Amino acid sequence: SIPYPLDEITGKKARGKSFHHGRFISNLRKAAISTENVTVKELTVTSLIKEENGRVIGATTLDKSNQEYKFYAPLTIVCDGIFSKFRKEMTVKKPDVRSNFVGFIIKDLELPLPNHGHVILAKPSPILMYQISTRDTRVLVDIPGKLPSSSDGSLKKYMENIVAPELPDTIREKFLEALETERLRSMPNGFLPPSINQVEGMIMLGDAMNIRHPLTGGGMTVAFNDVVLLKE
What we know:
By secondary structure, the chain is α+β, with helices and mostly antiparallel strands.
């Protein structure tokens, strides 16, 4: 067990949190909606509006009926994630995808250290496990190189034949049981160093701006830190 370090400013020990990501994002949206002077509109942004000198002055959007709306502002914030379609407005760099995370939920799994995140240093790559609710434990398996196909069963066989033998005996049985019932979801693990923003009128945040391996939840941490810096 690796203890959390002390915060140099407060002197308090840092804490780690795990949770259902979807519920967390929903609560963030509720908090934003309830904030004074905030108006929320669910639209699809199709393009950024620019002046002749390249300065961004707003965005063009579509609603569900394909009705177009344009919004103008002195500052446009772009935060459309790892698959950002507006990253090209700021940099020619592209994410370098070196592996994929395959994730699913295991029910009623007893981890060696309850209420702790677990990183299993397996071959050929690490496996992450952490409890996100009373009964649910999230499993994330890092698969290097090309991701085996899920449709023809290759991905499941990889998990059974390559990953499962690397797990401790106390975890392996529940892992194999979950493979029979749970949907396997995948996400590319990319790397993208940040670039200096030279586009006036626009700020890019989070994974749209720069990407690191998600093993320790760094993407969400960096995104929140971006928000704090922007606020200040």
